[in-house]
Design goal:
The protein has 16 helices and ten strands. It is α/β, with parallel strands linked by helices and 325 residues long. This is Taurine ABC transporter substrate-binding protein.
Length: 325
């Protein structure tokens, strides 16, 4: 029997491994217009290079649509807020949260139109407030009304996507909105902020954005998901090392403007309004803090009639395996 040369065997195995990585599955990613440092990596093609894949980037206006696309199999990886992902997990959509994208602060807010007669929270009664339903903004709006002891039934809450909110605001069709950029920037030009998601977090109603992946895709291509997570975290680390220097690079700001629709002057405030967890933080956050937040969000959504039940355990929908590496 002829024995294989061990060096040739190792070389063959190495080539086979390289071929497998080179053949990583092409996939579709759902992104939204939020402002975050990783959009620079998206604009630069860093995700394609890291995963050795062809990526189709599809822009979505809200998390509910992201979930529909992922549930149908049209999208493999998606960016969305804690409220829609909680609703998806509660309905047992086969997803895993593999990265906390941002802990939302001032990047989402409730804004009242100047001249609408809304001078404080209690003036919201009888007014038209627009928000994308089953979004983090929707969750935050309802949480704010609950905190202020305002009956949501006494507020006309309209379900509008962010582009429609911006258009309705310009026409004067709505009195207030709870939304994110670029629609938030439009509203703030002629309105005043009543409360931000960062302030609500301190009152016990935190929200966050996350990256999720279909479980079947993650099981088949774990190296791709890990590379995607690392690319995101590298972008966060580059920003957090020196935010001032990062913002001083005009190309970084230009790329964020292009992919978010936000105004250049608003970029610094929007970035500083959120927290972008680094790798070490992710391992901690993707544990009890996230499962507890999802459980509380699910209970709130059930109370509001947005989901039928609360699962006993949300841990199967959260994983650290792609960031722990």
């Amino acid at each position: 029997m002829k024995l294989l040369n061990p060096f040739r065997l190792l070389a063959a195995l190495s080539l086979a491994g390289s071929a497998l990585l080179a053949q990583a599955a092409d996939f579709t990613v759902a992104y939204q217009t939020t402002v975050d440092p990783a959009k620079v990596a998206q604009a630069d093609g860093a995700y394609e290079k890291a995963t050795n894949s062809k990526i189709s980037w599809r822009k979505f206006d809200n998390g509910a649509d992201v979930i529909s696309a992922i549930a149908s199999g049209d999208v493999q990886i998606g960016y969305l807020g804690s409220s829609p992902l909680t609703a998806a997990a509660t309905r047992k959509v086969p997803i895993e949260i593999f990265l906390i994208a941002t802990q939302i602060g001032a990047a989402e807010a409730l804004v009242a139109r100047n001249g609408s007669g809304i001078n404080g929270p209690q003036d919201l009664t009888g007014k038209k407030v627009a928000v994308p339903f089953v979004s983090t903004g929707h969750y935050s709006l309802l949480a704010a009304l609950k905190y202020w002891k305002i009956d949501p039934a006494k507020v006309t809450i309209l379900n509008l996507a962010p582009p429609a909110i911006a258009a309705a605001w310009k026409r004067g069709d709505i009195d207030a909105t709870y939304v994110w950029d670029p629609a938030l920037g439009v509203a703030k030009e002629t309105g005043k902020v009543l409360i931000t998601s960062g302030e609500l977090a301190k009152l016990g109603a935190p929200t966050f954005d996350a990256w999720i992946v279909r479980k079947d895709f993650a099981d088949k291509h774990p190296e791709v998901v890990s590379a995607f997570a690392k690319t995101t975290l590298d972008a966060y680390a580059a920003y957090r090392r020196d935010p001032a220097a990062w913002l001083a690079d005009a190309s970084n700001v230009d790329k964020l403007v292009k992919l978010s629709g936000a105004k250049p002057g608003d970029i610094p405030g929007l970035l500083q309004g959120n927290v972008y967890p680094l790798a070490a933080d992710q391992v901690t956050e993707l544990g009890a803090p996230t499962t507890d937040a999802i459980t509380k969000t699910a209970a709130f959504l059930k109370e509001q009639g947005k989901v039928d039940a609360v699962l006993a355990d949300y841990a199967p929908y959260v994983t650290t395996k792609f960031v722990a590496q």
